Amino acid sequence: MEGVGGPSLAVRLEIARESDIYEARYQARQLARATGFDAYDQAAIETAVAELATNLHRHAGRGTLALRSAPVGDRPRALDVEATNARVGPVEPGRSCDPYHEGLGIGLAGVQRLMDEVQLDYVGGRFRVRARKWLPAFRPEPVLETAGIVEGIERYRVDVACRPRQAHACADTYLIAEDHGALLVLVADVLGHGREAAEVARVLQAVARRLVSEKAWTAGAGRVVEQLHETLRGSRGACVLALTVAPDGRRVEWAGAGNVRGRLWHAGEGGAVPLLVPPGVAGYSLRRVQAQSAELTPPACLVIVSDGVDEAALDRRPAGTAEALLRRWASPRDDATAVLVRW
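Structure for SpoIIE family protein phosphatase, as requested:
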């Protein structure tokens, strides 16, 4: 979330006790009034701050809450809120990898409805939520954010295309990351459409990034799906497909649930491997996760598509781009994502 420059009025609060929540609400309303918001927006900002502060206290144990009136020159244009949990490092075994999954994670859609911009990310071992409320006269048109993450790619050729059903709100997401030749590919299709579904997709992005930063995905595709399932409990859920490639490029493992589908072409016997996963919804109705694996002979081509892409897209090895695949096979009535990886 880009800053808007200029001097600012700012408040920083430590959230450790229930009384700190009441102080955060009071400071939020005072700062919103000083910034120039009307009574309706003041109440919205106060409610959003109360939600963030409450979940810092109840679900993260403690944390910090920063409020800032962000002007350009001498005219305020927005109010920024930043909530950061205090706990650092990997979570305890058996606990969800997202400490906000009962509040700031899955409940983030509530804050999104009250604020104009909301981002959830993972920085320095901590989850952080940043939110902004613009004064009506300066509120910009929403901008579609990147639907997924691609990082650290060296050995593989990656091509991704994502087409949202509704502008500014894509409920598909993906993460593709390489570590010393090993590869993780994750595609998720959150149930439903619109901003609330897109917020769940953002939570998935943040959790997947954490799995990469802590190298937790090296435990296998099954473990990745289990972590996402735990994180999404209580939400609308998502169909997911996770696949890992061994550093030598000759063995893959995959796991998932629902109607995110894939196929792997290679030069060895059989030539093609369908990436079959059981029915279900991560976070809602997912039985025991069972990973599958296959040996292959490079050169290989992996294709994974979300539910918004016709299954016929997997009938033959693609010769073109992910965007060309969407142009031919994507439905205009659904979010659509295509991931192509070649090695």
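The CA atoms of residues 207 and 330 lie 27 Å apart.
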